[in-house]
Amino acid sequence: MLQAIHHIAVICSDYERSKQFYTEILGLEIIREVYRLERKSYKLDLALNGQYVIELFSFPDPPPRSSQPEANGLRHLAFAVSDIDKAVAHLKTHDVITEPVRIDPHTEKRFTFFTDPDGLPLELYEQ
C-alpha cells in the first residue's frame, strides 16, 4: 500500500526567517513558492537533492505547538549527513546551536539535535 514518504509539512511563525533557514542554512532547494491570497498564506515547496521533501507554510497567527522531543506527536525530523562534524561546523557558522554529538547505542552512528527558528526539533544523523 504505502510506497514512500511524500513530504513533511511545517507551519512557521515568521515565513522569511524560516525560508532563509531552510534554504540558505540547510541548503534545501526551492521548487515553487505560492502566495495563497484567500488563506493569507505562503506555501513553499522544498527539495533535498532533487527530491521533494518539505512544504513550508505561513498562516496568520498560528498557535504555538509543544515541540519538546518527548511531547506527544511528531518527535523530530532527521536529516542524513555523511560528515556530522562538518555539518555541525556549518550550522555553527550560522549561529545554530546543536546539542553535543551522541552515539546511537544500537547502530553506533553519530547524531545530534538542533531546532529550526520555531523550535521544531531537527536531527542530523551520520550515515
List its salient traits:
127 residues, alpha/beta, 2,3-Dihydroxybiphenyl 1,2-Dioxygenase, domain 1, 2 domains, four-stranded mixed β-sheet, 2 helices, 8 strands, globular
Describe this structure in words.
The protein is α/β, with parallel strands linked by helices and 127 residues long. It folds into 2 domains: 1-61, 2,3-Dihydroxybiphenyl 1,2-Dioxygenase, domain 1 (Roll), CATH 3.10.180.10; 70-127, Roll (2,3-Dihydroxybiphenyl 1,2-Dioxygenase, domain 1). Helix content is 17%, strand content 38%. It is built from 2 helices and 8 strands; from the N terminus they run βαββββαβββ. The strands form 2 sheets. A 4-stranded mixed β-sheet has the order 1-4-3-2, covered by helices on one side. Strands 5-8-7-6 form a 4-stranded mixed β-sheet, with helices on one face. A hairpin with a 6-residue loop joins strand 6 and strand 7 (110-115). The mean pLDDT is 91.
CATH class annotation of the largest domain: Alpha Beta
- For the CA atoms, what is the radius of gyration? 15 Å
Tally of separate domains: 2
| Arithmetic mean of pLDDT | 91
Specify the structural class: alpha/beta
At CATH level 3, the topology of the largest domain is: 2,3-Dihydroxybiphenyl 1,2-Dioxygenase, domain 1
Estimated share of beta-strand residues: 35-45%
Structural shape: globular
Cα separation of the termini: 28 Å
CATH superfamily of the largest domain: 2,3-Dihydroxybiphenyl 1,2-Dioxygenase, domain 1
Order of helices and strands: EHEEEEHEEE
Strand order of the largest sheet: 1-4-3-2
**How helical, in percent, are the residues?**
10-25%
